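To whoever is covering the structure queue this week,

Two jobs came back overnight. Logging them here so there's a record in the thread.

Job A:
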Amino acid sequence: MEAEPTTAQPTEQMTEQPAKQPQQTDIFAWANNLFLYKDKLQLELFLLSKTGVMYRSRYDAALTRQLHPLFIDTILEYVITGAGQGLVVRGFEEAEDEENVLQYTQVANVEKLMSAMNWLGKDESEIETFIEEDHDLKRIKAVVARCTHPDMPQPFYIIKALSQATVLKGVGAWTINGNTFKPLDEGAALRIPADNQLLVVDDDLFVFNQSKLERLFGYNAKKNAIAEKKVRQIEANFNLSFADEQTLQGMVKESKTTINKLQKIDPTAIKQEALLDHAEELGIELMVDDDGAIIIMNPADLTKFVNLLNDDYVESNLTGLRYEIKSKKLLQPSEEA
């Protein structure tokens, strides 16, 4: 038996109530406290694949001395030094990617990061140990260091992106010892980036490199904030129906294309009846339930609806052919006209 679609009714007037935010981590106090016992931190390394699968990684004791400089020291130096130089911590909605500003957001805002963190929480028993012959280092996109200490109530996590340039294997990969090059015959070589990228403390994600966040987890805070606002305007202006527990916000968050398209859409520029009439004229099928709500059952339905909002379907007056426009530039009338 199929679940009844849930319907989102438009409202005549909507007053947005700010959501109660969790307590933000005081990153300066955190860094000062961590500095006192950083040398006794225990680090576990995990590898995150391009398909979102987490693997446990083992490392030789000879690497232990390199872990703190690569993962811990640079972050502590940045934060503690920054505190004396006026470093400002701001949410993504308030800050730009600029000098002396550390941006942060809630971990819960980044869907793909939440999925990765679930591996290290409730799904940790299912994490396999990474074996190069079975899993291939070329398929890994990030290394995750879980940092623990007996005096810390819960761990924190440092995440660094890995690129193809940081992995060496196969023909053309050489090693040198003294004055002689030798082929890297077995396994693969990996270079861990030294720069600060992403830090997870409690419920907060601190972003030292915004491009790495977007690359690893497909999250652009500015675009997502605008998209969330546009979704609320759509819900206020249109009568929509969803299956099961789906919501418009949830479906939009899973589609980078839709998030990008919502950036310049004005959801109040057209009413539901006019949109449905336009869809019918163009032969674009939008399902409507008995209450007149537009049914959004899957991503394809969402794409058609958003494309109509963005006026992406046109019929040529010259040929009568119909097109979906991938990009367009608004022609401004000349001064004479």
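Job B:
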Amino acid sequence: MESEKRKPYPSDLNDAQWQILEPLIPPAKLGGRPREVDIREILNGIFYEIRSGCAWRMLPHDLPPWQTVYHYFRQWKGDGTWERMNRELRTKLRVADSREKQPSAAIIDSQSVKTTKVKGTRGYDAGKKVKGRKRHILVDTMGLLLIVLVHAANIQDRDGAKLLLNKAKGHFTRLRLIWADGGYKGKLVDWVLKTHGWILEIVNRDKGVKGFQVLPRRWVVERTFAWLSFYRRLSKDYEVLTETSEAMIYAAMVHLMVRRLAFNTQPAGP
């Protein structure tokens, strides 16, 4: 295989990680040309691009052609493969941590990021003074991604939360409680309960405390954003379509989780 002939990159899948991901790869379509590409190398190309932050056309020449790598990324975006991988790996990590497959509690938050000169949805977040988009995420108590929605930055957190939670409807049957910061207080609390039957609990800052403060439960989602910050493609939103931005985030979480799973399942030494 190609991956055995070249010097590996830090973002490459090792054998243990590939063994976990391989069963989650969609099979080749019936009736077409037989699949000739090395899918492990395709994934290595995708993870290199997201981790390094380079443009697709600037992928190293010892990886598959950028057009082929991008084709598979786009195909898996369209057929839901990235979301399915995220779900399967999250379940494996939760079970490995002696938890239920689905969470009963979650944390919601948003992150405003700048966009570039490419066309697409964008807006101005007056609070953060950022022109671009918002990444709205819902994570479990381990900080693992449940669902993500990318929208214009001028959409208020309470309105963006409605869009995100509507998207999550029907996917998490055990979910009962969601923690959020003060930006989500108000009518949204009643809306969440009436519309979805979930309790939205606001975690407020202590009055009189200035500067940074670690808030109960809230730090979990902040840590998830910190994990994503290691993937330089996510430093800004470079994508034309918000759906592509979401797929990038799912793919980054897939890379993060498969590395953690492989590390946790390594046999102990003598």
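Note for Job B: The mean pLDDT is 91.

Please reply-all if you pick these up so we don't duplicate work.
Q.
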